[in-house]
Amino acid sequence: MSWPPVRQDGVRRPEREYEKVAAPKKGRNASAQSKPGRSLALILIAIVALTGGMFASGHNTPRLGIDLAGGTSITLRAVAEPGQESAINKTNMDTAVEIMERRVNGLGVSEAEVQTQGDKNIIVNIPKGTNSREARDQVGTTAKLYFRPVLTTEISGADATASPSPSASSSASDKASGSADESASPSASESASASPSASSTSQGRAVTDALKADATPSATGSASASASASPSASASASDADSKLQAAYTKLDCTDKAARAKAGEGVKPSESTVACGQNAQGQWQKYILGPAAVDGTDVDDAQAVFNTQTGAGWTVTMDFTDGGAKKFADITGKLAKNQSPQNQFAIVLDNEVVSDPYVSQALTGGNAEISGSFTQEEAQSLANMLSYGALPLSFKEDSVTTVTPALGGDQLRAGLIAGAIGLALVVVYLLVYYRGLSFIAMASLLVSAALTYVIMSLLGPTIGFALNLPAVCGAIVAIGITADSFIVYFERVRDEIREGRSLRPAVERAWPRARRTILVSDFVSFLAAAVLFIVTVGKVQGFAFTLGLTTVLDVVVVFLFTKPLLTLMARRKFFASGHKWSGLDPRSLGAKPPLRRTRRPSRPAGPVDPKEA
Amino acid sequence: MSKLGSLGARLHHGEVGYGFVKNRKIWYGISILITITAIVGLAVRGLHMGIEFQGGAVFTTPKNTNASVSRAEEDAERASGHDAIVQKLGDGSLRIQISGIDTDKSDQIKEKLSRDLKIDAEQINAELVGPSWGDQIANKAWQGLGIFLVLVVIYLAIAFEWRMALAAFVALIHDITITVGIYALVGFEVTPGTVIGLLTILGYSLYDTVVVFDSLKEQTRDITKQTRWTYAEIANRSINSTLVRSINTTVVALLPVAGLLFIGGGVLGAGMLNDISLSLFVGLAAGAYSSIFIATPLVADLKEREPQMKALKKRVLAKRAQAAAKGDSLESADETGEAHGEEPEDTATVVVGPRNQPASRTRGRGRPSGKRR
């Protein structure tokens, strides 16, 4: 064959000529082809930076989902009370999530995770090594919110006596002007014990009728102070069964386990002990009277920034008709008492979340809790208050318990499947594209590295957890990613078949391949996005991975495969169409370009005899 | 490579080609037949819905459980009071399915089972599903499917044209029907994994179709300015010219899925991997078929009804008749391989062409004459 020698001497010349010819072309679509080195550097820097970030963050592996790591996953579905279907909305669901998180983590479960999914599901993921049944019980029940009158309270822990007096003064100082005089009177008439003053400090928060002026409260507050002291004391003495008193003395609220047990199984109509954290972050213990108002009596609660009285962030409550009456009764009674028995505790799941004091009977059906709240505190309290009023209950829709052994097996199987799939693809590419397949493999490798690093980083940032469907998505994505290379390579080969030499072929093929890749990746991404938004559960994890890898595919093809091919086209191995390069014009059946120039002048003829 | 590579070359030059459009009636017929079979199968046999859709529990015991299948079945039925299905998986674990029980009762059943089978309760994997959960997953999936279809039809109608959008839509429905039909006929269990696989097919099947359409759009850009080809002929050529890519893509897509299927089915027994890959495998194959044999011929059919294209066809036929009369039809037929759509770009390449000539000429001469036709 005379071919090879002829080619040999031809190689260098056209090569140089193309430099000149290609120059104007470069200017035409400079964006596509200029400086392949720059985009390669860009993507390499991105990989290095992301990898560095991964190591810096200390999350070197993607967070594993329950089905791969083992644990229990509970899906709850919100059920609205009849006629209140609109109650299933984002605010209410978020509130519910917040409450459940408190509960599950209150069990001492580490890294339990509660999140909403879709518009009416909540997923609770409890990792292995926890008593899953207890967690399920906690999550499944509805929250119990009660307003209970405070009978006694003190700081719980080692030194309860030291703190009262300083905190008393601090409370007075940080109180808003409107309530300053009210708080002054109880503390002045202080007689019963040292502890009450401690509680009043933590509050520094007064419940007032939102509409009322400040003048009257102070009068009622001081008037009642002396009168009430004895009745409440006797009340607590008479029904203070020694048991409750003993439990109270024993209770150490700084102990998490003890806290969880406090007041367990007590009926709303009975007195109980409970713990709570005050504004200084100290744990405080309480003896609380029977529930006076139910959480369901609260119609709505909101955090409001009160500009009129200058009280800062406050929480306003609206009661239902029945609740308003009960609330008026209890506040009427409490207002006559002296601290701490003029306080009521807002108890959520046996934990005191707030214990404001009352200075007068609040009859308007609404109330305002004021004090030195931050915006966050106010909102959180409002959420909890509204939770009792949520017309929602939750039903277990699915519970999956996976032992760590099975989880490990599934992870291994997924990885093996991925490896097999990848190996098969590599072998196929190698056989079909030969030298070209190294570019494809390098691109797949870059794509895989990016996917891995980003998944690892998304664990801590958005709570992404790799589950089995996500692994499937990643494996399926191998095909999608490889396809982009195939589209491009086939285009390049088509150009070579037209008789072009490699470098112009690479550049000419790109704009067309690019469009095809973009269009088809867009469709694929659209599918992933729709699935992610609409669906729930496992489908979502799958869709997320698919979407992520589709986006990465575009990034890799644009910033890596194309520039790499441009660079490689300059290498002799590829440019000369080496037999093993996969770009050998001869085996591709290239047409001499001569015929092309002749063609337009040719007359048209009948079509497709080949079909015959 | 060289075989497929040179086939690619010959397809590219139009030396070989299959009359996909010409023979479309046959393929339509086959597809309609398959679709009808699928629908009939669906109607008669129905789908075998998994526990996830009916509500119930699936317990999986650890590896190498000693208890026999029949014994476990008895135990499970005694413990739950419901029918139980027990399968032995590849690694020796038992998969016990009990339908129709409530999520609350499952704990007791699990404890009873662990006592009867003498396995630590903490070692048993449990999946409990309330009856409405599966419904919800299915409903969401349908909803997703609907939204996706609407968006894709809109997108394709904008990016391409409504005829292509319609054809892609038909091809998609075709793929889904076939996949679902196979599930009904073979009696595979439908699980959320199946649904995931099915939904992925959507993206993939369209992906394939879009690539063919893209080439079709490119090649028919200036179709009315020439009188050599009818729309159907160009459509056929775009299928042929992207055929190698279609085959490659399908193979490359199927290989990882096959890996999944092998591992999922062979090693793990039943499970999510298996379910996803099975429906993907069926769907991908159907998708590759439909984008070649159904979608594009359908576009050609729709397009040929357009008055413009009718006129073009008339002109083309007239010209051909004229040319045939002159008797030079055979020779020029040689040139038919070149895609028409590339012609506008040729003006740019002409600059390159002459420069290339010395090398190319030698190249041309060096070729064995047989290859030059």
Automatic annotation (TrEMBL), chain B:
Annotated TM spans: 26-44, 141-158, 165-188, 194-216, 247-270, 276-300
Gene Ontology annotations of biological process type: intracellular protein transmembrane transport; protein targeting; protein transport by the Sec complex
Superkingdom of source: Bacteria
Residue span, Protein export membrane protein SecD/SecF C-terminal domain: 111-304
Pfam families: Sec_GG, SecD_SecF_C
Single GO term (MF): protein-transporting ATPase activity
Mode of membrane association: Multi-pass membrane protein
Single GO cellular component term: plasma membrane
PANTHER family reported for this sequence: PROTEIN TRANSLOCASE SUBUNIT SECF (PTHR30081:SF8), PROTEIN-EXPORT MEMBRANE PROTEIN SEC (PTHR30081)
Family: Belongs to the SecD/SecF family. SecF subfamily.
HAMAP family (alphabetical): SecF_B
Complexes and interactors: Forms a complex with SecD. Part of the essential Sec protein translocation apparatus which comprises SecA, SecYEG and auxiliary proteins SecDF. Other proteins may also be involved.
NCBIfam families xrefs: 2A0604s01, transloc_SecF
Annotated protein name in UniProt: Protein-export membrane protein SecF
Organism the protein comes from: Streptomyces fumanus
Gene name of the encoded protein: secF
